[in-house]
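WARN retry 2 of 3 for item q-0093 after timeout on previous attempt; input resubmitted unchanged.
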Amino acid sequence: MKRILFVDDEENVLNGIRRMLRSSRDEWEMEFVASGEAALQACSERAFDVVVSDLRMPGMDGAQLLSEIRDRYPGTARIVLSGYSDAALAAKAVPVAYRVLGKPCEPAELKETIDRVCTLQEVISQPALRRVIGTLGELPTLSATYLALSNAINDECSSISTIAKIVEQDVGMSTKILQVANCGFFGLSSGASSIAQAVGYLGMNVIKTLALQTETFRTFVPSARIPTSYWEKMQRNSQHTAVIAGTLPVTREIREVTMIAALLHDAGILALASAMPDQFALALDEIEQKNCSQVEAEEAIFGTSHAEIGAYLLGLWGIPSIAIEAIAHHHHPSRIHHMGLDCSLAVYLSDLIAHGMEKPPDDFHDEGLTASDRIELATLGLLDQYAGFRGTAMQALDVGTP
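OK item q-0093 returned
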């Protein structure tokens, strides 16, 4: 049974949550406390799967509490439930919270959010994944250039020229950003002849995402045993997946983070190939010999896959939790419940469409789908819509069918 801790300094709010979640008492063991200090005391006495906290509280506020929870109890998922719109306080909470929900919150939304963060926590805490991560030794950190870029982007006073000067100091980042700005990656009608133009065209958050992709490839140096063509194909697939994600009818609020998740969805492949090149090469051999998927081969050899590994590592780097969830589940979307076309479903669909386009022309009449793909799509209620999504994506990528 999951153990959930709710924290709010207003007793009537806690009582309201009790009533709202009365039907969940058979699934969850719930505890309610009125301060951050009391929450830390409760956590020291027993383990909680999730802490749900208000933001603005006297003494220790919600952001401070969740920061302490993150550092002391990393296995505990963290959610903000607040009726305040204090931008500065909310900004402090985002890096330490899996989700930020507003009050009033519908019971179904709160319950689904808690269920989903529990599932994600289970996925990225499995023993097999921990063993693989352990082989990396000291976990990689981001470069000073990327951190400077990230800080500048988060500073409202930063100008395009400020961002451009930081990017220009890094050849790899500059190359990637100019390449994307000039290839119509995000549907831009014109290219860029300078980094400043590219920043202006693409926007701050896209620049940050592209810089992170460059950083990821630089941090994890793949073995020479893996053909260069494999990495070229992987980068191309990541870019196509992001473009396709941008064509799907997701809500405006999650479109950008969905494209971020799509661009970075295979980052775990780099970590596997870098840390365990011999086993990764075996996985590639398995794919050829048994005609199985890469995920099936990885799970057979490592006990986990690049999806969970990428989610774990990118989570350490502060990627938004909604993107982490999408990356973790992009090969197993049925692990969680979906309400409409959310970020996770969009990344799953985008990756499926992108891989389908890489298959031989003879597969086009089957839309590049395997039997298991069709079963998964049918289970998710998306099989009838898939052809339309794929057609729109092919137009965006200017891909013709035979």
